[in-house]
Design a protein that fits this description.
The protein is an alpha/beta fold. Helices cover 52% and strands 7% of the residues. The protein contains 16 helices and five strands. It has a five-stranded mixed beta sheet. Helix 1 crosses helix 2 and helix 3 runs antiparallel to helix 4. The longest helix is centred in the middle third of the chain and has 17 residues. It starts with 29 loop residues before the first strand and ends with a helix.
Length: 322
């Protein structure tokens, strides 16, 4: 499913009903052959280019079978005759490799925000393998574009469009705040998703220090609990030393943190954000006692906790159910 990028009848903003509407609301597109030298890449777009091996495979396929799917472009208004690539960067590079001088293109005469939505949407829908960073930056780009176009519930619209949980979309968008070092570790699997979400709220300089510590200690990993501890200790800090980060991640510190306490305290805000404001404290207590009596809920939580603590067993789909 993709966004339908039609406009409302009386404004230049996206109509909320158009997002999931029929094809009739989309502006008609023209297809034409465009000189390959007239195509301009989308700078800083969130999706990584193919590896040289995969690009060569694509080039050989195009050489043998032709370009089966046209690229999508939009005119650059201040540069006559030039077109920005919305979708098809890898196809363009593959065509260059085999000496093609023009490329079949679908021309979409749209503004910056609609182009951004199309760029993210086509890649999210068509790519079979996506890195966490690609999802994070793409969802953030869509959120920004939808908000600019007047959406009051941008995150929910994205979640509905891709049949995802709204919280999952928001967690990916949070990860877009990660420093490059931590984002690379998230992509490689060194940093688990749950920990990355928590660390994304820290000051960028603090994140960089954590990233440097992890680079210096290849065997060191951060669990969701340890990430939460880092956030609790470093949340308001603008700078932190590597020594402090190592201290917080030390096994002794973790053991102290996980030692049984005589009393467990939860803030009412943390609880009511999940189960609603309409419950009294007594109702909440009764609800927790009810949950504790159901072993299947405890088993589900244990499976999730084990997945978050071991990146090798971590399945991103677990987060979709949270």
């Amino acid at each position: 499913m993709g966004f339908n990028l039609g406009t409302s009848g009386n404004s230049n903003k996206l109509s909320m009903t158009d997002f999931l509407g029929g094809a009739n609301s989309a502006a008609p597109a023209a297809e034409k052959e465009i000189d390959i030298n007239s195509l301009v890449p989308w700078e800083n777009q969130p999706f990584k280019m193919y590896s040289e091996f995969k690009l060569n495979e694509l080039a050989n396929s195009i050489k043998e079978n032709g370009l089966l799917s046209p690229i999508i472009v939009c005119p650059i208004n201040d540069d006559e005759g030039k077109y920005r690539i919305i979708a098809g960067h890898n196809r363009v590079e593959a065509c260059r490799k085999i000496g093609m001088t023009s490329i079949p293109s679908v021309v979409k005469d749209v503004d910056e925000n609609r182009a951004k939505l199309m760029m993210a949407d086509t890649n999210l829908c068509q790519r079979t393998e996506l890195l966490p960073s690609e999802r994070a930056y793409a969802y953030r780009a869509q959120q920004e574009a939808l908000q600019a176009l007047g959406s009051k519930r941008a995150t929910a619209e994205i979640a509905d469009n891709y049949d995802e949980d709204r919280r999952t979309i928001q967690r990916y968008i949070s990860c877009a705040r990660l420093c490059p070092e931590l984002m690379d570790m998230l992509d490689s699997g060194r940093l688990i998703f749950a920990a990355a979400v928590k660390l994304s709220g820290l000051n960028p300089k603090v994140q960089e220090t954590i990233g440097l510590v992890l680079e210096d200690k290849p065997k060191l990993k951060i669990s969701a609990d340890q990430a939460n501890e880092l956030v609790n200790e470093l949340g308001d800090m603008q700078y932190v030393t590597s020594k402090k980060v190592l201290e917080l991640l030390s096994p002794r510190k973790s053991a102290e943190k996980n030692a049984p306490a005589a009393k467990i305290t939860l803030s009412r805000k943390e609880v009511t954000e999940i189960i609603g404001e309409d419950m009294s404290n007594d109702d909440i207590s009764e609800f927790f006692y009810f949950c504790l009596q159901h072993e299947e809920l405890l088993d589900e939580w244990r499976q999730l906790a084990e997945a978050e603590s071991d990146p090798d067993d971590y399945d991103e789909s677990d987060d979709n159910e949270m």
